[in-house]
Write a structure and sequence with these properties.
By secondary structure, the protein is an alpha/beta fold. It has 13 helices and 12 strands. The strands form 2 sheets. It has a 7-stranded mixed β-sheet with strand order 1-7-6-5-4-2-3, with helices on both faces. It has a 5-stranded mixed β-sheet with strand order 8-9-12-11-10. The structure holds pyridoxal-5'-phosphate (PLP).
């Protein structure tokens, strides 16, 4: 290009290209302990032929940033490994991991069975979206176990489970449910966000699909949203990946990098949460202001024996019911806490508390026998003794005085 056709007056023409194209540098001798955050929408190909064949490379190939860069693939490989599965796919939120699974598996005329204790937005999705698509949605008692066989008919294509149940904490007998579901050829999904694959491995207990809200313990710092779908069956994995492509789900490499960082301390954080959570649940149990404590590691907890059989630990999320006559004092008691912050979500390094409403519209197959909110606690990485003092402050504020 001759100087006189340069339309950029005042810019030396070659500097345009020099600004755009960064030089290649040597990577010899460089190796970091952390996984690099590799951002890309476009992935470039060595030649026209490679571009033409870009979709023929199978599951490992790179074609477009929406379908993953090495950062996301590394995270997926690590999650698959932790789950004891062959494949994992990350999604933009924990909720989307569940809805994607349902969309990938269910067609008009099919039935999905969902536990009555399900994470409430899943109920909203099933009632508001799946029903409109001609899918029959039926809720079941989460404690049903092998008796679920009575609810199964040839239209049932998916039995969803979540153990323990959101806030109400019912432990499900996944091996018994999976055996019954498989006897009629239905698939079984399990929302494992509470235990994480470190304390329970749904794929080994009979589920076909293990779902995690990576947002919670796995990422672990209350600053990103992500979900994961893990499976062992390659055909099922391809079906889920295809649906994610149809919908256009993408997950940012930056978030994947943060999740990889979070995973490094997952075992350490869970261990702290487990010990502290059980100690706090025991302390609460001793208080007269508290009517019930729902924590699977407490021997009195109804699902304790199944938890003990199937899980290798309890994370730091548990809940409590306040004595009936003190329900009016709950807002003031929550405000009196100094370390536990009031907020949704859980599984981070900061302790959180949230009053959850299970009374209105959250149950359809079973009765919820308690009045007032269920108080959900998520134990963070702070000093256990200071957290216990904070819980006692909560109880004192509830107290008659
Ligand atoms: C929070 C949560 C989800 C959803 O995770 P998001 O990333 O917030 O969408 C799913 N299941 C359970 C049990 C949860 O607690």
């Amino acid at each position: 290009m001759s100087d006189n056709v340069n339309p950029f007056a005042g810019i030396e023409a070659d500097s345009l290209t020099a600004c755009v194209h960064a030089p290649q540098i040597s990577r010899t001798g460089f190796k970091a302990v952390s996984v690099a955050t590799e951002r890309a929408s476009t992935i470039i190909f060595p030649d026209a032929d490679a571009y033409a064949r870009r979709n023929d490379g199978g599951l490992e190939a790179y074609s477009y940033g929406l379908h993953g860069t090495p950062t996301r693939r590394t995270l997926e490989a690590q999650i698959a490994q932790l789950e004891g599965g062959r494949h994992a796919l990350v999604t933009p939120s924990g909720l989307s991991a569940i809805t994607l699974t349902m969309l990938a598996i269910l067609s008009p005329g099919d039935t999905v069975l969902i536990p009555d204790s399900v994470y409430p937005p899943v109920r909203d999705f099933a009632d508001g979206h799946l029903k409109r698509q001609g899918v029959t949605v039926r809720y079941y008692d989460p404690c049903i176990g092998g008796e679920i066989i009575r609810l199964l008919d040839p239209t049932v294509k998916l039995v969803h489970t979540e153990s323990p149940g959101s806030t109400s904490m019912e432990i499900q007998d996944l091996p018994a449910i999976a055996e019954a579901a498989h006897s009629i050829g239905a698939l079984v999904s399990c929302d494992n966000s509470w235990a994480t694959p470190l304390y329970f491995r749904p794929l080994e207990a009979g589920a076909d699909i293990s779902l995690e809200a990576v947002t919670k313990y796995m990422a672990g710092h209350s600053d990103l949203l992500m979900g994961s779908v893990s499976v062992s069956d390659t055909e099922l994995y391809k079906r889920v990946v295809q649906s994610a492509k149809h919908i256009g789900f993408g997950v940012s490499p930056d978030d994947c990098g943060l999740a990889l960082r979070g995973l490094q301390t997952l075992a350490l954080r869970l261990d702290h949460a487990a010990r502290t959570g059980l100690a706090l649940a025991q302390a609460l149990q001793g208080r007269e202001e508290i009517a019930e404590v729902f924590h699977p590691a407490l021997p009195q907890f109804p699902g304790h024996s199944i938890w003990q059989r199937d899980f290798s630990g309890a994370s730091g999320v548990f809940s409590a019911i306040v004595a009936d006559e003190l329900i009016d004092r709950v807002p003031g008691a929550l405000d009196s806490m100094e370390i536990f912050a009031i907020g949704a979500s859980w599984g981070g390094t900061h302790s959180l508390v949230a009053p959850m409403d299970l009374v209105s519209g959250q149950r359809s197959a079973t009765a919820w026998p308690y009045n007032g909110p269920v108080i959900r606690f998520s134990v963070g990485a702070e000093n256990p003794l200071a957290l216990e003092a904070d819980l006692m402050r909560f109880c004192d504020a509830l107290g008659k005085s």
